[in-house]
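Posting for a labmate who doesn't have an account.
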Amino acid sequence: MESPNLLEMRRIMKAFPGVVALKGVNFELRSGEVHALLGENGAGKSTLIKILGGIYQPDDGEILIEGKPVSIKSVLDARAQGISVIHQELVLVPEMTVAENIFLGREMSRGGLVDGKSMIEEADRLLGLLDIDIEASAKVGALTTAQQQMVEITKAMSFNSRILVMDEPTSSLSGKEVDALFGNIAKLKARGVGIIYISHRMAELERVSDRVTVLRDGEYIGTVSTRETDNDALIAMMVGRKLTSYYTRTYRASDEDVLEVRGLGDGRFLKDVSFHLRKGEILGFAGLVGAGRSELVKCIFGVDRFTSGEIRIEGEPVRIASPSDAMSHGVALVPESRKAEALFLKQSVKYNISIKVLKQFIRSVFVDRKKEEAIADRYIRDMSIKAPSSAQIVGNLSGGNQQKVVIGRWLATQPKILILDEPTRGVDVGAKAEIYAIMNKLTETGVSIIMISSELPEILNMSDRVMVMAGGTITGALDRTEMTQERIMQLATRRA
């Protein structure tokens, strides 16, 4: 007789006011398996995981662990069943040590006092089981994102978790860090841990997953063996159609320079950075995490100060000491973290789109509500933002629609130069295709785009040229005929 699944979620239903999030969804997980959960933003993945993790309770359906029905009404209930969720946004305390984070809320004690020595010894033992080379006494705030993620995994294992959920675990990792993560996933599999893996990066699924379950619009579409399917089939399951033009790019950049950066340095990390941007061009910036790409564009946009070098726009030297200076010269920046740096999550779509163009509809103390509404409606339409109305709270939108709101906000300023820092991070394939089409359309109207991306397929398929950075400087420039993943990685790992 075949042994039961480690986990079964049967006919899970969940509704919120005005929307049915899950419509009888099924999901199963075997011991020692990585089972990918795939779907566009808004498909129901997060709701299903929150039900498993005890944050939400289902309206109908049942959950079985090793064939036995269980009731999960809280995070503590989930933990008692051996379920741990590692969220995309890590929830560690930077000021505390690794050991203190692992045992937070359940500290070891001796004689009524916290036994820090025993916690460090036990944390070192747990880290050693996964061959994680991190000191238990180190402050978490001093660790890299990848190391912090390993601490989260160790913390989950300290609860003797049998079921581990990883939500977009590679979104902030470099190639080597991804390899290290996948190595630890293999060790967890060997110990019989079942892993639910959520990712928008299709290329990862073949490397790490055994099976894939696809959700669409809150419904269970199907489960397939990773070895017996391909990306095109999975995308068709996710969006209900084939994306025949996933990457949309027509290469028509002119020879006219719009932006020229000469010898830029910030006295700390950036040194002697020089490049130029042509009209109607997408200039890709590639490099490993920490290469200096985000620091560079923050200097260009006036968020950070540069101490040497100059910036020229349309041939003229310009002074950019603040974002308002940059905006006055037609420069816009969509930052890397939309939630932390761009969105007002508790405000409406209308507010978020119109906030940078207040002068267009505010005169003295009077607000032209019709004009404000017209601005918002234009970019909701142009960006294909899926929202019931412009009054929708932006925090309730999917990640892809939130990103389109941020891009729409900056397009409302009519920029000549649009800087996109990781424009499709945490965005599903359908929304990615829409963002690529928007980018292509903008270049056709003469807008010039600087695109920072950690996804090499995105760099290779959307860029006219690529600047590669490492250690705070540019280590190489490649045109379309020279671009390959191998060449980019060679330059990304080189120090000038």
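Reply:
Got it, the structure tokens are right above this. The mean pLDDT is 87.
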